[in-house]
Design brief:
binds magnesium ion, single chain, ten-stranded mixed sheet, 12 strands, about 40% helix, globular, alpha/beta, binds 3-isopropylmalic acid
Length: about 400
């Protein structure tokens, strides 16, 4: 029921950049007992489970018409199957309208291998972050991270901050092209091709490592376009391109040139450019001077955490991984294993991720209702999780938000 209707869904989606059309007969052929949306539900592990439960409680309270299909992902599947993102979960994601994702424990390569069941050890299995893989497998190139200071949140760095980070999500240092040890073919090719490689050329292969930063013109253009489209649609005043092209000339040069080319299509929106190091300083100094930020993958990863901290920390930071066919919504925080099962962490980030999902599905009224409820609970300040200086638990926060839904 999903695929044939996807084009209808795409047209209505707030993020697609395409004009929205009236919701006429997209679903007329559906049987009445079918849910309107099919959502993959991927709690993952650690606190991922309780925060997604909290989001579900709120979605159910709104009577969001969805069928939720649970998907296997996370540390448990790495340990038992050697794959934290099994093929069956990839198949599931091919057949849904959207997905909600919680969090997943990641460990460095060697400790990850040590936790595999004995039968899987020594087989050369390498742990790779499932969320990074998911972004690549489904070409979820647009990592969209709004960072809004909800009024009255005692954790706000300043009231009124309302930043939106667009992070390129599939390329850059996240491309996964890495070598440790470095193969001799590679070191000799680099020795021939680059003078700057000479200090490394004679090192033993296991005494250094190479991670490739790969940025394409296409990948850069489409994330910058997503940022400008958003700015245009939401009346934002400027787009700031974050880079380090003064040093990382080749790859960030591609990003910056692509950004300048795309900016030409949006003459009404000024674009400025900032080096990522200076950007971290300016964001702290004058957060109100910025609006929409767009960056290659790693810089976007870093500045989105910085922006998150300015609006209350990771308990409030939500994230959309958006492609042309699928979008996966998640809290920006990790699995925090030490809090797992304690019903302690703040579910607002995940609840706001659910709000983003509603927007993406075109359920804008529902999304606004949900955001209003979150804002009301924050403003009131009666129910507060530990990060907000309170004693309320994860599900208590969700119940309170559900109570505030008007
Ligand atoms: C994020 C996270 C991930 C990333 C980790 C968990 C792999 O930090 O979504 O920002 O680096 O992209
Ligand atoms: Mg991050």
């Amino acid at each position: 029921m999903i695929c044939r209707e996807r084009s209808g869904l795409l047209r209505r989606r707030g993020f697609s950049g395409l004009p929205s059309v009236p919701q006429v007969s997209d679903y007329s052929e559906r049987e009445s007992d079918m849910a309107r949306y099919k959502i993959a539900w991927l709690p993952g592990d650690g606190v991922g489970v309780e925060v997604t439960d909290a989001a579900r409680l709120v979605l159910d309270a709104m009577e969001f018409d969805a069928e939720y299909v649970p998907g296997d992902i996370g540390w448990e599947f790495w340990r038992k199957e050697g794959d934290p993102f099994p093929e069956r979960t990839i198949r599931l994601l091919r057949n849904v309208d959207a997905a909600m994702f919680g969090a997943i424990t990641s460990k460095p390569v060697k400790s990850a291998e040590a936790e595999l069941i004995p039968g899987l050890q020594g087989k050369g299995l390498v742990y790779r972050s499932p969320i990074v893989r998911m972004r690549q497998v489904f070409d979820l190139y647009n990592c969209f991270r709004p960072c809004k200071a909800y009024p009255g949140n005692g954790l706000n760095f300043k009231e009124g901050i309302d930043l939106v980070v667009f992070r390129e999500n599939t390329e850059d240092l996240y491309a996964g092209v890495e070598f440790a040890p470095v193969p001799v073919e590679l070191s000799s090719a680099l020795g021939r091709l680059s003078k700057a490689f000479s200090p490394f050329q004679n090192l033993p292969p296991d005494q250094y490592a190479i991670s490739c930063k790969i940025n394409t013109r296409h990948g850069s253009e489409r994330i910058v376009r997503a940022a400008f489209e958003y700015a245009r649609r939401h009346g934002r005043r400027r787009v700031t391109v974050v880079h380090k092209a003064n040093v990382v000339r080749a790859t960030d040069g591609v990003f910056l040139e692509a950004a300048r080319a795309v900016a030409g299509d949006y003459p009404e929106i000024p674009m400025d450019e900032a080096n990522v190091d200076a950007m971290t300083m300016w964001l702290i100094k004058n957060p109100m001077n910025y609006d929409v930020l767009v960056a290659p993958n790693l810089y976007g990863d870093i500045i989105s955490d910085l922006c998150a901290q300015m609006v209350g920390g990771l308990g409030f930071a939500c994230s959309g991984n958006i492609g042309d066919r699928l979008a996966v919504f998640e809290p920006t925080h990790g699995s925090a294993p030490k809090y797992a099962g304690l019903q302690k962490v703040n579910p607002i980030a995940t609840i706001l991720a659910a709000k983003m999902m509603l927007d993406w599905l075109g359920e804008n009224t529902m999304a606004a209702r949900l955001e209003d409820a979150v804002a009301a609970v924050i403003r009131e300040g009666k129910v507060r999780t530990y990060d907000m200086g309170g004693k309320s638990g994860t599900s208590e926060m969700a119940v309170e938000i559900a109570r505030k839904l008007s």
